[in-house]
Design a protein that fits this description.
Layout lengths: L7 E5 L5 H10 L4 E5 L3 H11 L9 E4 L2 E2 L4 E8 L7 E2 L10 E10 L1 H5 L7 E4 L5 H5 L3 H7 L2 E5 L5 H10 L2 E5 L16 E6 L3 H4 L2
Parallel strand pairs: 1-2, 1-8, 2-3, 4-7, 8-9
Antiparallel strand pairs: 5-6, 5-7, 9-11, 10-11
């Protein structure tokens, strides 16, 4: 619904690539998908999947790194229940269960990446509670490039994420419903779609 032919899509927290490879089909051969994933086990799986995508899909590039608030080295915790619940140290949800291992990972910022990669039309962000860190202090992305943002927002960050996105002149929508003016929400929720005000007519029915 949000990815158009020719779009550049950044998938932050790609996990096994469900969103990344679906976006590649939607973006088509003239688009591009860049998937960011720090877990080394998942990275090798993503690269194997990227190598066998059909020609009609956008190429999918895998970046073996986390996205965070600063260029840094961080500790990532690998969840024992499911790698979908992996999180950087200091974040994560109860679904993690215990921690099966930790990995030292490189962390990059959205603005640093935006100076080195094709700018995104759409960003998907699923980072297990670290979404505020990922998006705060990134003026080139939020004020100039202004992609559509699909974001999982935890209850702990909901109020601050709402304030951040509204201040950047985004409108918020319930990502679990068909996008329309009737699906606008006042507060960022678990499945939030944030659309720049100047692009509303492109996406809303």
């Amino acid at each position: 619904e949000l990815v158009r032919p020719g779009d550049v899509v950044w998938d932050v927290g790609a996990n096994i690539g469900l969103f990344a490879f679906s976006a590649a089909i939607r973006a088509g051969r003239n688009g591009r998908v860049i998937a960011f994933e720090p877990d080394t086990w998942l990275v090798q799986l993503l690269r194997r999947s990227a190598a066998i995508q059909p020609e009609a899909s956008a190429p999918v590039s895998i970046v073996a790194a986390a996205v965070a608030g600063s260029l840094s080295l961080q500790t990532m915790m690998v969840a024992s229940r499911s790698r979908a619940s992996n999180a950087l140290a200091g974040y994560g949800h109860s679904q993690m269960g215990s921690i099966s291992e930790t990995q030292m990972v490189v962390a990059l910022t959205l603005d640093w990446l935006s100076a080195r990669l094709p700018p995104p039309n759409v960003i998907k962000c699923d980072v297990e509670g670290a979404e505020l860190e990922v998006l705060t202090g990134q003026p080139n992305i939020l004020d100039h490039i202004r992609p559509v943002i699909i974001c999982e927002v935890s209850g702990q960050t909901s109020e601050r994420m709402t304030n951040l996105l509204l201040a950047a002149r985004y409108r918020l929508y319930n990502g679990e419903k068909t996008l329309s003016r009737g699906s606008e929400i006042e507060r960022a929720s678990w499945n939030t779609v944030a659309i720049p005000e100047e692009r509303l007519q492109c996406y809303l029915t």
